[in-house]
Amino acid sequence: MRALRTDSLSKGLWGFTAALLHKWWLTVLAVLSFGSTIATYVPAFYSRFPGFPRWVPFAVFVLTFFIACFRVFRDQQREISRLQHAIDQLERKKAELVIHDRRSMFFRAWDENTRTVCGTYVRFELVVENRGNRHSTIDGFDLEVAELQKKTYSNLKQLRKAGVQTPTAHVGISGPDLAPGDIVRVDAEKSVGPGQLLFYLPEVPPPDTHVLHCKLILRDTLNISASRVFKTPEYGHGTW
Question: Where do the domains of the chain lie?
């Protein structure tokens, strides 16, 4: 950490010195050129012109040094103001995510080897709208299910399956995914979908429970979130 700070300080010092020398020599040349012009042409029109005292070059160097310092300071202040304005603009831009539910369904997952129910598939069909003025990249999926023992499931991974096996049948799952990859990008003032999200939960609802109340929570890379509660019927006990 100390080495990084030293390196940053060194680069900043060299950058300031280079800018100062650049401004200083340009200013010195400008002032000396002006003085040389006066020393050359004024005596031709004003014979009593005594010329410049010996201390003038030193005074020019000192004066131009302070002028150069001021110009570097002014440029730095302008750059700081520009960067602060850019930061303010970014801070004012913000995504605003809204979930529109279409329909949902859950399936009891059947293990052919053990001949038992081993978990739950939950499928959502939805549209995600971004009402804000900044793009959003959704990479976090959480689920809260009141009827299951664990209740809260964080950082779920999307599944892509052509079908799922239930205790009574192999059910095909058709329809487009909400996004082709593991993330969902929603441009500013645009929407994505309709599309589906499919998740697997290792818990199983009680046999007499045929409706799950699922709170789906989407989170993006800037921790902007949106949630929606889906009333999710079991396959075979509701309309898909």
Answer: 2-92, 97-233
